[in-house]
Amino acid sequence: MKTLLRGIQLNGKPTNILINGNRFESVNAPDNAYANTAIECHRYAILPAFYNAHNHAAMTILRGYADDMPLQTWLEDHIWPKERAMGRAEVYEGSVMAINEMISSGTVFFNDMYFSMSRTATAVREAGIRAAIGVTYMDSYSDKMKASKEERICNWMEDQDSMIQITAAPHAVYTVSGENLQKLYRLARDHGRRFHIHVSETRKEVEDCMKAFGMTPVRYLDKLGVLGPDVIAAHCVHVDREEWDILAERGVTVVHCPCSNMKLGSGRFPYEMAIESGVRVTLGTDGCSSNNNLDMREEMKFAALLAKLNGDTSLLSAPEVLKWATVNGAEAFGIDAGVIADGKLADAIIVDLASPRMRPCYNLISNWVYAADSSCIRMVLCNGKIILDKRS
Amino acid sequence: MKTLLRGIQLNGKPTNILINGNRFESVNAPDNAYANTAIECHRYAILPAFYNAHNHAAMTILRGYADDMPLQTWLEDHIWPKERAMGRAEVYEGSVMAINEMISSGTVFFNDMYFSMSRTATAVREAGIRAAIGVTYMDSYSDKMKASKEERICNWMEDQDSMIQITAAPHAVYTVSGENLQKLYRLARDHGRRFHIHVSETRKEVEDCMKAFGMTPVRYLDKLGVLGPDVIAAHCVHVDREEWDILAERGVTVVHCPCSNMKLGSGRFPYEMAIESGVRVTLGTDGCSSNNNLDMREEMKFAALLAKLNGDTSLLSAPEVLKWATVNGAEAFGIDAGVIADGKLADAIIVDLASPRMRPCYNLISNWVYAADSSCIRMVLCNGKIILDKRS
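Predict the joint structure of the above. Result:
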């Protein structure tokens, strides 16, 4: 099955892009290239799709349920009681809502951590997008639950297609013991799974870790031997210079979630040190309760502007933050995508250059990061299939 | 001419809204109310439209022309040379682009400061929206130009309709002498014009003012006697507690421009002091070169999240920031609008509750501020007329 995108703009020039099955066969195909379907794209430009590296998708069902209050009130009096009342049906419904919203804003993959994850996996399969489904783990679970989680890390969905991967997802250093972190890390490594964990999100987490273990979370995780190239560390707001070097040396992937960090008052991500360390940074929206959307385009603008807030107006340029949101995310999860190039998996966003926000177009990437919104999107492709089509 | 919006959600309840001419006649009309046109709105909710209180609309033609570089390089090597090459045609074209984008994102009024403003005024009239057109003034202008500017403050468009108002717009304390500021303030006051000026946008502006006049910009303007209820002070990033009290006491309107302040590295607006002082705060996008769009919905989210960054997660709630972007802006410019209520001017945004970003809908205002984008907008009304209609 071949699709030809005729006359579409790529890197500022019109070209013909030929998709064969789930990959780009050529991003410079001849006008008379054979295809089952040819789509006129002269008014459109193609950009890489988004890979959302930290999410709790089902929480979309709590969008707008509680906002603008102190963190502990928000969690203890509102979010946790509501979550306790959520069952498998609500997780499915919330995941469907999340995936609809993600597709409408150009996201084709998300890295998730929640409960009843088989329901989220079903929603992912039905929509035809990609995901990393976390097997969430806390010490407070029953022994039976913990055993079942360990079993899932080893064997769950091992034999299925390539659109869903399973991760070990211990919640954080304050909810999972060092011993259990080490056990899960071993299981994950032995079964080729990534290891997804919240790290140094708040100042309190760092202070509590210092009290409990005499060192900061990154140093503690490193001492446990659970930092490596398959680790996905979400947030990393309160990380010092030496810790950035540790993360970079171990090959850890860091997920920056600017909207969530701002809305929950966690603080400004240390862009300067993160970039200087050379660590791989990706972008995530976190869950809808602390954002309250799953829009990676908006997340890029928040990151690029928050980086500049204190005066360094060259810090985190539009092309750099686009890399965080696209190819860095794909690479972190072993997805051979994130750039529009021959042989790569055919994931992409197609935008309308006639949208009011895209004009004039001196610089497509600047317009995409700083000026656009989801109203500029006309098509979204995932794994060679058109999963959103809003051409009129 | 009467229009009935049938079954539309207002404050969480379905109602019938009757528009008569340019005003809301009733926001609780009977089902059988007579109207020339009745629109089925059961899937929609109505919200106040946006009043963008600080803009340089024509700069939209420079969107994406230069980004991510040090401030002085950006201004001196890129923006200024390009602006010097702009003529009246480019100002018109940029203004048309800006107005198209503003309408598509729900803005019905903007307060502008630029040059060749008669071309911007033409674009405003053609689109049927509202604007305050600034007569921009700098000491560096020729004497002839200055005389013509003063003449315009006194007499320009005085006899025309109510959609456009003229303001005196001295650029800033570092480009206009104290004597000229006083002269323009007198002219503005004598002719019922507002007085629009940049104030304390950067730390450098404050330091230079201290050096030149021995006091900070707000104190200096107050000493000159040019602070009053018709003054619109854009930015006010570097304003101390005593200055906030001065601004509040004089009845000055402050325009907060979060995206511009972040992108240009100007710093974080002192939300705590501004709110505590009781001053009227409005929102503005600033020009496209430092944003790079004119989207007041996005601006609300940036303000509400930047307020919370340092830990106070209750600071600047969704309803508060919506007020800044709507009724506060309308009031500051004497426009009898900004709330959906009987007798008010019929300016409004109509959103689709079925949009992926609007679901679920525990709290419409939270969804609008934190989750929506312009893709949720189905209609925009200005002065009783539908100026955008994207119903499908």
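The mean pLDDT of chain A is 96.
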